[in-house]
Design goal:
about 180 residues; alpha+beta; cell membrane; Lipoprotein signal peptidase; transmembrane helix; aspartic-type endopeptidase activity
Length: about 180
């Protein structure tokens, strides 16, 4: 199936702007609620394997570089904004028919922007979802992180089973019958 290049943004993946907005708003609302409802390092037991917590992440994923002098705040903000810009360009250039890939990019953009807002406004990212087994805890995360992981998973899925699975190279290498 050949993809049609959109001539207007309404024909492109940018029609999923609302997904980006929903992720961003939901992420920010849940973070505001956590900051107001729980003191820093506060914890609410929800299930035997899940708690709500209030923690701050000054680094990136898994608190990478969180113990640095503050430069990482702007470094991670810049990286996220570059990635957002690239994904928005991709969304504009690809047609609406690339549904899974467009959803993956929209989730990635919404999640990245949610964490960028925290970094710029607060200097850190608010995390609050804490899953664990016994004393082994997965690092706390938030709605934006969840959207990023789901978006990355959809992108991987699409590369194997969707629009990315059938590249021009694969099509050219097939013998003609």
């Amino acid at each position: 199936m050949a993809t049609v290049k959109p001539t207007r943004w309404q024909e492109s993946g940018l029609t999923l702007w609302w997904v980006m907005l929903v992720v961003l708003v939901l992420d920010q609302l849940t973070k505001v609620w956590v900051v107001q409802a729980l003191p820093l390092f506060g914890r609410v037991d929800v299930l035997p394997f899940f708690d709500l917590v209030h923690v701050r992440n000054y680094g990136a994923a898994f608190s990478f570089l969180s113990d640095q002098g503050g430069w990482q705040r702007w470094f991670f903000t810049l990286i996220a904004l570059v990635i957002v810009a690239v994904l928005l360009i991709f969304l504009r250039r690809q047609g609406r028919q690339l549904k899974v890939l467009n959803w993956s990019f929209a989730l990635l953009v919404g999640g990245a922007l949610g964490n960028v807002v925290d970094r710029v406004r607060l200097g850190y990212v608010v995390d609050f979802l804490d899953f664990y087994v016994g004393s082994y805890h997965w690092p706390a995360f938030n709605v934006a992180d969840s959207a990023i992981v789901i978006g990355a998973g959809l992108m991987i899925y699409d590369s194997f089973f969707g629009s990315g699975a059938k590249s021009d190279v694969n099509q050219k290498s097939k013998p003609k019958s």
